[in-house]
Specification:
This protein has five helices and six strands; from the N terminus they run βαβαββαααββ. The chain is of the alpha/beta class. The protein has a domain at 15-64 and 94-139: Alpha-Beta Complex (Ribosomal Protein L13p, Chain: A). Helix 1 (25-37) crosses helix 4 (97-106). The longest helix is centred in the N-terminal third of the chain and has 13 residues, at 25-37.
Length: 142
């Protein structure tokens, strides 16, 4: 019995749209990462990008459980000594809601070139409007 290894052009990449309104951030991000990786397909191959394209709308309406909106802190460093910046989840959702979902999903993907290629198939928008209607994305519920 030979092991099947998918080729890039053999597995079609579908388009899905996810409405993030009133969905829990972590549960939604894990399902999106699962779909971007392609693990829901029987042709899944660990070293190939066989996942689907995901469009997330209403990113500003995502919710979290507990007191995460006040207690969860995102850190970044400018590269200069003593310049570590911090921002709470509530502030980040106000200023850049699409970055919250993008970071949550990409940190669940593999690191390296393959994970970055998978992350490029994720599109996140703060409102309902998105420019991907020509791809006819299907609604994805979970």
């Amino acid at each position: 019995m030979k092991t099947y290894s998918a080729k890039q052009n053999e597995v079609p990449a579908d388009w899905y749209v996810v409405d993030a309104a009133d969905k829990t951030l972590g549960r939604m991000a894990s399902e999106i990462a699962f779909r971007l990786r392609g693990k829901h397909k029987p042709e899944f191959t660990p070293h190939m990008d066989v996942g689907d394209h995901i469009v997330v709308i209403n990113a500003q309406q995502v919710r979290t459980t507990g007191a995460k909106s006040a207690k969860k802190i995102y850190y970044r460093h400018t590269g200069y000594p003593g310049n570590m910046k911090s921002m709470s989840l509530a502030n980040r959702l106000e200023q850049h809601p699409e970055r919250v979902i993008r970071d949550a999903v990409t940190r669940m993907l593999p690191t390296g070139p393959l994970g970055r290629q998978m992350a490029r198939k994720l599109r996140v928008y703060a409102s309902e409007d998105h420019p991907h209607t020509a791809q006819q994305p299907q609604a994805l519920e979970f």
